[in-house]
Design a protein that fits this description.
Blueprint lengths: L1 E5 L5 H11 L4 E4 L10 E4 L4 H4 L6 E4 L5 H9 L10 E2 L6 H18 L1 H9 L16 E4 L3 H11 L5 E5 L9 E4 L1 H9 L3 E4 L13 H4 L6 E5 L8 H10 L2 E6 L19 E3 L9 H16 L15
Parallel strand pairs: 1-2, 1-3, 3-4, 4-5, 6-7, 6-9, 7-8, 9-10, 10-11, 11-12
Helix pairs in contact: 1-10, 4-6
């Protein structure tokens, strides 16, 4: 069994050594330009087209939860991946817990009004602010996949009402689930804190726009943990200025790193992190990949297969 590896920034040696320990029977190598030797599996992030083109692979594993980089390449180069070759994403591998931490931190901060108290501290102002009720501090998740379900469960544990919206019907214990375009408005109208975990597809680009944000409960909050392409940045600034949105926490942006002159840097009600809300954890990811490859070798279909036609 031959495995090729490519990532623009990960240490190839660390991953090859770790996977070799988990799959001692495999021959694992770092792919380099000109390498057209046989391979059964490819582990990739932003792979060059020539790495995959023409190969009869048993599977391709994207080294992250998102696969929009590969799907974008496929739209431009449809022959990059042979028909029928399954593409898998990392379903969780530790990213779910990181997303939970990020969401819980911001939701509890806004619920307890800690950012407002920090502003008062900076102004040397001692003033008690009215408390908020949990029943009115409803959380809505755009996206009800594995990561969305994890985040939902972590917020349910704090007693908040939680709902989700997805393109197709989903069921999550304790969560009010909406689906399809016809239920999106109803979902938004019930939401005080909107958390975006949608996949990046042509249909979801720009979904976080002024029209959508204006349908949330007045003075709502926004967390974007998915992709910068989902957010119309000027619309968020306008919604903050109009009071439709009270604050936002953003981990992803149209241009990364965020330019030094971007208005988000100086906006008092926007929290920024450098696209690290959830990072790939090598040990957990290698465990998942090794287990999945063994399933493929035994004729089973691992979880995390991407529906290329849908984009996730």
């Amino acid at each position: 069994m031959d495995i090729i590896f490519y990532h623009p920034s990960f240490s190839a040696g660390t991953w090859i050594d770790g996977l070799q320990q988990r799959l001692p029977e495999a021959r694992i190598r770092r792919w380099q330009p000109g390498d057209d030797a046989p391979a059964d599996y490819a582990l990739v992030r932003q792979p060059p087209v020539e790495m995959l083109k023409g190969r009869r692979l048993k599977g391709v594993f994207a080294l992250g939860a998102g696969v929009d980089d590969i799907l974008g390449q496929l739209r431009e180069h449809p022959d990059m991946l042979a028909a029928g070759v399954p593409l898998f994403r990392l379903e969780d591998t530790g990213m779910g817990r990181q997303m939970q931490e990020y969401a819980v931190y911001h939701v509890l901060g806004w619920f307890r009004r800690f950012p407002e108290y920090q502003k008062q501290k900076n102004a040397a102002l001692w003033r008690d602010l009215p408390g908020r009720g949990r029943s009115d501090f409803s959380i809505g998740l755009l996206g009800a996949g594995v990561l969305g379900s994890n985040v939902a469960q972590s917020l349910l544990a704090w007693g908040f009402p939680v709902s989700s919206w997805s393109r197709t019907p989903k069921q999550t214990d304790g969560v009010t689930c909406y689906h399809g375009p016809q239920q999106l408005g109803e979902f938004l109208a019930t939401t005080r804190v909107l958390i975006n975990l949608l996949p990046n597809t042509p249909q979801t680009v720009g979904i976080l726009n002024r029209a959508l944000l204006s349908q949330l409960k007045p003075g709502a909050f926004l967390i974007n943990l998915a992709r910068g392409a989902h957010l119309v940045e000027t619309d968020l600034l306008a919604a903050l200025e109009a009071g439709e949105i009270s604050a936002a926490a953003l981990d992803v942006f149209h241009q990364e790193p965020l330019p030094a002159d971007h208005p988000f840097w100086s906006h008092a009600d926007i929290a920024i992190t450098p696209h690290n809300a959830a990072v790939t954890l090598p040990d957990e990811a290698m465990d998942f990949i090794a287990r999945s490859i063994r399933q493929c070798e035994s004729g089973e279909m691992p979880s995390g297969r991407v529906d290329i036609s849908r984009g996730y």
